[in-house]
Design goal:
Elements: E1 40-52, E2 55-57, E3 60-62, E4 67-71, E5 77-79, E6 94-102, E7 105-113, E8 117-124, E9 130-133, E10 136-139, E11 145-146, E12 164-171, E13 177-185, E14 192-196, E15 198-201, E16 206-209, E17 212-215, E18 236-245, E19 250-258, E20 267-279, E21 288-291, E22 294-297, E23 303-305, E24 317-324, E25 329-336, E26 340-349, E27 352-355, E28 358-364, E29 370-373, E30 376-377, E31 387-394, E32 399-408, E33 413-424, E34 427-430, E35 433-436, E36 442-444, E37 450-451, H1 453-459, E38 465-473, E39 476-484
Parallel strand pairs: 1-20, 4-7, 10-13, 11-13, 17-19, 22-25, 23-25, 28-32, 29-32, 36-39
Antiparallel strand pairs: 1-2, 1-6, 2-3, 4-5, 6-7, 8-9, 8-12, 8-14, 9-10, 12-13, 14-18, 15-16, 16-17, 18-19, 20-21, 20-24, 21-22, 24-25, 26-27, 26-31, 26-33, 27-28, 29-30, 31-32, 33-34, 33-38, 34-35, 36-37, 38-39
Amino acid sequence: MRTSQSVLSLVSLLGVAGLLAACGSEGVPSVSASGSGSGSGSASASGTVTGFGSVFVNGKKYETNNVTVKIDDESERSCNINPNDSCGIKKGMIVTVNGSFNGSQHTAATVRQKDAVEGLVQSVAADGLSLVVMGQTVLVDNTTIIDDNIPVKNIQNLVAGTDNVEVNGHVRPNGIIQATFIEKKVVGVTPEVRGFVNNHAAGSATFRIGTLTVNYSGADISDMPVPSGNNWDGHFVEVKGTNFASATTTLIATKVELENQGIGTVIDEFEVEGFVTQAGTPNGNVINFTIGTTPVRTTASTEFRGGTVDEIVVGAKLSAEGRFDGSTLIAKHVKFHESVRLEGDATVTGSTLTLAGLPGVTIAVNSQTELKDGKNTITVSDLQGNHVRVRGRVTGSNTVVATRIQLRSSDNDVDLQGPVQSINGSVIVILGVSVDTSVINQFESVSGSSMNRAGFLAEIKVNSLVKVKGKLNGTTVIWDEAELED
């Protein structure tokens, strides 16, 4: 393998796809991106830091000896990331690791981190599940890592109007930030935000990101298209400033620059994580969609983990891995990230619902739940008596908060996916629902290969992610398939 002598910048979408700085692959031979541990070439991954001992991004290990590290806008430095020195990188931060792979071993050349928003806390929700930072709504859930410098690691201990924070996370299609890491900034605060431009008005030299008004009349905009009317709308940008007025939620910008330049480099093995911002109509297993600003295309041989091709819709949180051909990520596999998946006929009570065959599971619908009938937005009352597909996260032993609910055609299918709570012989419990696997004849491993019941039961443990499928017969579910998920 011959690696390019220069590191090229590939920018996707911070908070949706992170800041990608990818090795060029000029002269690199074509390789298999099957994940089979064969071949070699350039590699890049953008997503959440999940561990150390080197660095793990989206669960994949990258060796980091004498790696170039850059934290937000600090100077680059050479570092060996290990359990005793993370070089300023913390779990939950959004990074891009750029380097190479040889067989199953991945080696980083650079690790770059950038936050989604840094600035003044304007408000904190009473339930502790969201806050507003410099005009940006930030969602917090049980996967968000709260830094030690916030008392009791609870955002309710932040003081609105006084405290500044730095937020790492993924930007959802509606501009809301799903936080992966939050820390309080005591010194060196630089008001900055990354997001989609809307309401651009060239005449007044202003635009908005979330509810933040950006005034760029005195800013460096040399990286941007020449302002005209609303021609910046839809661009994903980084904005830096020196003066944020909380009373008017206005930032006086010093610089505005595009965050999606440099795409064009071929990357042999490329992974991106984030929210789907555009999605076409599937043709068999083939679909074109966008994670952040990164175009993705599946093929007839793409492997789908934790979901199906028809669940690739705007708002879904996914990761995709494959070969980046210079303009599009050709996905070898696509993974769905919400741990809970439910399907069945809905009964609605206020802002909660239950599904036929899963009567013990309570599903909460809140203001952030995306409700869709195809591509149209609906209300929770429209779900009553209809067949639905639910994506969400666990909030209690038998409670779920829905992140997305899709109205489906009438069916007697029932799906139950979640972490295993207990195992007693052949009976497993998921979200309080007991499933007797002795009546199930079809079992699948994480890779999708067939396995027998004994092998399945030997492999699962408490907290293993398992999906079971069945058919509703009266009020009883006849379970007929069980799958291990990753």
